[in-house]
User: Which sequence fits this backbone?
């Protein structure tokens, strides 16, 4: 049984607003949004590309993508990342 944080009255399982005091009931498991998942993916890719870029300096061609391609990928990821951030900030305000 869930209880309202404001007035402690018992709430139905999927009630979103308290029937007694009208307070918003906080969601139990807020779903991870698509945007935050996407951001995690971009961050992971960014790290992979950083590693690849460093590797491409030391390893002979053929093992990893060329240095130029790695830098290109990094730039694209940076752009995507910054546009993600601007979108997230636009949503907040
Ligand atoms: Zn209440």
Assistant:
């Amino acid at each position: 049984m869930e209880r309202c944080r404001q007035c402690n009255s018992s709430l139905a399982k999927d009630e979103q607003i308290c029937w007694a005091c009208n307070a918003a009931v906080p969601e139990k498991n807020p779903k991870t949004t698509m945007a935050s998942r996407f951001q995690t993916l971009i961050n992971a890719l960014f790290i992979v590309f950083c590693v690849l870029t460093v590797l491409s300096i030391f390893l002979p061609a053929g093992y990893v993508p060329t240095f130029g391609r790695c830098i290109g990928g990094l730039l694209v990821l940076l752009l995507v990342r910054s546009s993600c951030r601007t979108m997230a900030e636009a949503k907040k305000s």
